[in-house]
Amino acid sequence: IRVYSDIVIWGLSVSDHTYSTEQAAKRIGVSRSTLLRWIREKKVVDVERRDRNGWRVFTEADIARLKESA
Question: What pTM value is reported for the model?
Answer without folding.
Answer: 0.75
